User: What shape does this take?
Amino acid sequence: MTVKNVLLQNFRNHQKTRFSFAPTTVIIGPNTVGKTNILEAFYILSFGKSFRAENDRDTIQEGKDFFRIEATIADETDTKTLTVIFAASAKYLSKKFLVNKVARRHIDFAAQFFTVLFTPQDIEIITDAPSLRRNYINSILYQAGKPYRQTLLTYEKCLRQRNRMLYDLKDGRKDYRASDFDYWDNILIENGNFLTKKREEFVNFVNSSKKDMFDFKVFYDKSIISTERLFKYHFQERLAGMTLVGPQRDDFVFLFQTKRNVAPNVTSKKVSEFGSRGEQRLTILQMKLLEIEYLRQTTNDKPILLLDDIFSELDDKNINKIFDYIYNQQTIITTTHREFVPKKILNKKEVEIIEL
Ligand SMILES: Nc1ncnc2c1ncn2[C@@H]1O[C@H](COP(=O)(O)OP(=O)(O)O)[C@@H](O)[C@H]1O
Ligand SMILES: [Mg+2]
Assistant: This one.
């Protein structure tokens, strides 16, 4: 799959601009000129939401009440137009997704376009809260197949409902019997177990894959949801006013072998605690390369790689490794200075430079 061009209207600082893309495109321009905004637009085309806006409404240009992102996408057999429109009223933000101008539900729209994004902030996936790791793993599996998207939606909807019941119980606003939970529990168990299974499969894929950039393993610290576990935690859940077991409590721990002597007989340690900044960066970068491979295998298509400002963060050796790996992948790169871009990229046959 390749993206030929994109039109951004009222999106962040881009009022109405069309950009064209080659197999490799380098976007060069000073800070705050709107480079990351272009990558953000692609991310929204895949996920229907921003990776960095606290509120999706903020992606609409100040003073406007809607944005439109329209991209022309081609694969071997045909070309299609993907459109995303966010429109804001005083109260609501409405999101529209269209394929060849025909409205689709996001769950189906999401099957049209895949991306893998790498930004300097991604190191936080390794070092920060478990929710970032869950969101990250979710984003991969979300793109990898409709059953996961569907199951995740159902699970999250039920979880909100069940949490509301527990919250009302705690608050004394309502009185539910244990049996009132049965219906929701069954849906959560069935869908939760599917999410756990898919997450486990993905972790196994990562652990059994060759890693040229940096070697590590992922430990899947899972919170299984079952009748027994819900029964066991029921009292605590009533006190807490929320559901305490299930994939929403999962964590993924990155472990590596270190020669540094931390404690006797301990060889495997958390990258987040014992890894240097450089090792943490290589871990997430290696994950992104595996993510490309995983999406390639599960979707039979190549995701588009978005590399935001990576040259300032990585040394030449690792930059070269990335480009060895992604040679046949459509890639969009942003940078502040032309000098940062390796010669072998600039000298490629099919490269487009966009100067902002
Ligand atoms: N909703 C918005 N409306 C107008 N401009 C915006 C909006 N959101 C962000 N911007 C502007 O976008 C610019 C940042 O763009 P960004 O893509 O992050 O720059 P960079 O080229 O450094 O990656 C800032 O000047 C910011 O003011
Ligand atoms: Mg930027």
The first strand starts at residue 2 and ends at 11. The mean pLDDT is 93. The chain has two domains: 1-114+301-356, 125-298.
